[in-house]
Each structure stands twice: as structure tokens, then as C-alpha cells.
Design goal:
209 residues; mainly beta; Pnp Oxidase, Chain A; two-stranded antiparallel sheet; 2 helices; globular
Length: 209
């Protein structure tokens, strides 16, 4: 089989942010709820830090070990619908109103997004298990030159069992050429245990509880 040609093209956009609430069944199993899309993702950054730990001896380095840090996700959306905030931040509804309090507990979720390229190819990124934290509430007076607000949401992610992997993983990613979906379909099964829902499914936000 011929070796797949490497691609050196840089991404030019982001799209298709999906999430689903996770319920652990046991140490090596989970159940994902409805896959929901939040539209109009503007920016996303996944920090996957590593630190080199050195052991010294005889005035030099005897050994190096790599330590992984916390996986942090920073997102920016044009707007995050209230229905999705209620789910992602674990907010209680009080007579139709969303409420914020010290006892709020956000649920564990899995998430997926895609980086897009000018040639029509895509790189899919999956986050296996984490929590998103509530965003700030802000506003600004209308001025002569109109400006649109945006919303930033951050999250912390951890490792989780992924079927077929030899150890727990925090991030999965894979690329598809234009018109191909093999890696996308595989990633959705690994992250959510469900098939890709399609760009028209779940775009209205999560169901209010």
C-alpha cells in the first residue's frame, strides 16, 4: 500500500462545534447524551502542555521524564444560546429563568470541532472528557460604529478510556481530504459512541431542562 502523501497546508477556519453530556457506566465505559451543535464558533485553542523533568548526577543530566499538564480549552463564539449555557454550566432553571449560584455543578461533556482548509479538507479534533465553566456577563452601549459582542467559554479536560487505545486519552484528531469522511466518522464513534449527526442536526442548541 502506498504511503499517504503528507500535507503542509495550514488551516484557515474553524467550524462545527459539537458537545454531548457524558454519563460514566464504569471505568471503561460511558454513555453520551444527545449530540448538540453550537453554531458560529469564531476561535478555539486547545492547550496540551508538557514539562520535561530532569534527574541530575555527576554534574549532568542522568535522565529525562516527560510530565503532561492539564488540558485547557478556550473558545470564542458569536453567541452561546441560553439553552446550551444551562446544560454546559449546570444552571438551575427557576420559573423559566436561568440562575447562577455557588452550588452549580457543570456536567462532564465530550466535544468535537473541525479545522477547515482552503482545499476543502478538514481536520477533526475530539476532546474526550471535561467541564466548561460559566462565562462572564458583559454588555456595551451602542455607538455610531456598530460592534458585535462575542462570548468566551473556557474548559478543563482530562483523559478517558477510548475504545481500541492502549491507555486513556484526552484528545483525538484526524484529517479527511475533501469529500472524504472516514476519520470524521471514526472520531465521532470514539468520542461520543454515536455517528456524525450532520450539519443540520442539533443546531438550535440543547433542550432546556
Amino acid at each position: 500500500m502506498a504511503e499517504e502523501k503528507k500535507s503542509y497546508k495550514a488551516s484557515t477556519g474553524v467550524n462545527e462545534f459539537y458537545y454531548a453530556v457524558l454519563t460514566d457506566d464504569d471505568d471503561q465505559s460511558f454513555t453520551a447524551g444527545e449530540i448538540t451543535r453550537v453554531k458560529f464558533l469564531q476561535n478555539i485553542e486547545v492547550e496540551i502542555p508538557q514539562e520535561a523533568m530532569r534527574a541530575y548526577g555527576d554534574n549532568g543530566t542522568a535522565e529525562i521524564a516527560i510530565s503532561g499538564g492539564n488540558v485547557t480549552v478556550s473558545t470564542q463564539f458569536h453567541k452561546v444560546p441560553i439553552q446550551d449555557k444551562n446544560i454546559l454550566f449546570g444552571l438551575e432553571k427557576v420559573d423559566g429563568l436561568s440562575s447562577i449560584g455557588g452550588d452549580d455543578v457543570p456536567p462532564y461533556v465530550a466535544a468535537v470541532f473541525t479545522k477547515t482548509f482552503e482545499d476543502g479538507s478538514k481536520e477533526w479534533v475530539g476532546l474526550t472528557k471535561g467541564m466548561f465553566m460559566r462565562s462572564k456577563i458583559s454588555g456595551k452601549t451602542k455607538e455610531e460604529n456598530k460592534e458585535f459582542d462575542n462570548e468566551e467559554v473556557t474548559g478543563e479536560f482530562m483523559e478517558r478510556y477510548v475504545q481500541g487505545a492502549s491507555s486513556e486519552k484526552s484528545v483525538l484528531f484526524g484529517a479527511d481530504k475533501k469529500g472524504e469522511t472516514d476519520n470524521r466518522d471514526s472520531l465521532f464513534q470514539k468520542i461520543f459512541g454515536k455517528p456524525y449527526p450532520g450539519t443540520n442536526d442539533g443546531e438550535q442548541g440543547g433542550v432546556e431542562g
